[in-house]
Amino acid sequence: MTNKLIIGNWKMNGSRASIKALLAEIVAAEVAPGCEVVVCAPSPYLAMCAHILSGSGVRLGAQDLSAHESGAYTGEVSASMLREFGCHYVLIGHSERRTYHHENDAAVACKTVRALEAGLIPVVCVGETPHERESGQTEAVLSQQVLALTTALSSSQLTQIVIAYEPVWAIGTGHSASADTAQQAHATIRRYLNAPCSILYGGSVKPDNAAQLLAMPDIDGALIGGASLNAKAFLTIAHACLDVDKPC
Ligand SMILES: O=C(CO)COP(=O)(O)O
Q1: Which of 26, 44, 73, 188 is the most exposed place for a label (fewest CB within 10 A)?
Q2: Per UniProt, where does substrate bind (predicted)?
Q3: Do 105 and 113 contact (CB within 8 A), yes or no?
Q4: Exactly one of 94, 103, 186, 239 is catalytic; which is it?
Q5: Are 36 and 3 in contact (CB under 8 A)?
Q6: 19-55: per-residue pLDDT in tens?
Q7: Could you read off the pLDDT of 180-238 as tens digits, one per residue?
Q8: Which phi-psi region, left, alpha or beta, contains residue 174 (left: φ > 0; alpha: ψ -120 to 50)?
């Protein structure tokens, strides 16, 4: 049975009350067999989420981490802190961080190493901008982003990471990549990675397109933004892997 990984990225949304309500619904639902469900919460809520999720099948993730192990880095959160507060996963190099915080491929690779050292599973985000796609640079961009990882990580470390293909033009736009377009990009990433990693698709994944995307041979799960803030939508997506033709 192939495991599908379904990750919700709440971004900078929620409050104590709304997160408690959202998690209550997610925890109460049965996780589809062969499907790992993860929620990536804003840092201040991680401890509360870890408490609520303990004993459930749902795993916790963070949305970023420091490239440093510890020290005088005001405002940063280290990998070991995330691990200590119950995180199993951490998102790295989301396009919003690459754009607004100028994170480059080298910083992303460094954070990935920090996460692995602390026992976290890094979910490294890659993807091209609209301009890069329109000008035919998609493969070049993806190969460059993957090269930073294959250069910085040992071959055994490479097998422990998860990649999320998130085309920037599909994030928060309501216009997901088609299943064929996403499959093509995933196959490209897999070829350049040359390691048995899970590759998730992210970018306007919704209940009505999840099954089609998850049915593609190189799509091993989904990274969900907006729809993960609604328990019903998120759980419908998580259950979509049961509907695909191949076992999940
Ligand atoms: O950025 C994303 C997940 O990390 C995708 O966001 P949306 O699902 O809202 O498009």
Answers
A1: 44
A2: 9-11, 172, 204, 225-226
A3: no
A4: 94
A5: yes
A6: 999 999 999 997 777 899 999 999 999 999 999 999 9
A7: 999 999 999 999 999 999 999 999 999 999 999 999 999 999 999 999 999 999 999 99
A8: left
Residue count of the chain, please give it: 248
Task: Kindly list the domain boundaries of the chain, sorted by start residue.
Answer: 4-240
Q: Report the alpha-carbon distance of residue 183 to residue 30 in Å, rounded.
A: 28
Q: What is the whole-number distance in angstroms between the Cα of residue 148 and the centre of ligand 1?
A: 23
Q: Which residues line ligand 1 (CB under 6 A)?
A: 9, 94, 166, 171-172, 202-205, 223-227
Catalytic member of 103, 166, 186, 239: 166
Report DSSP letters for 213-234, one per residue: HHTSTT--EEEESGGGGSHHHH
- Site of tokens 């033709």: 245
For residue 157, the one-letter residue type is Q
Q: Is 134 a catalytic residue?
A: no
CA atoms within 13 A on the CB side of 216: 24
Which one of 13, 99, 163, 224 would you pick to mutate in the ligand 1 pocket, going by the greatest count of ligand atoms within 8 A of its CB? 224
Q: Is 103 one of the annotated active-site residues of the chain? A: no
Q: Which amino acid is at 25?
A: E
Please tell me the predicted confidence (pLDDT) of residue 215: 95
The rounded percent of the chain whose pLDDT value lies above 70 is 96
Look at residue 130 and give its three-state secondary structure: helix
Q: Is 225 annotated as a binding residue?
A: yes
Q: Which residues pair with 61 in a beta bridge?
A: 40, 89
Instruction: Tell me which CATH code domain 4-240 carries.
Output: 3.20.20.70
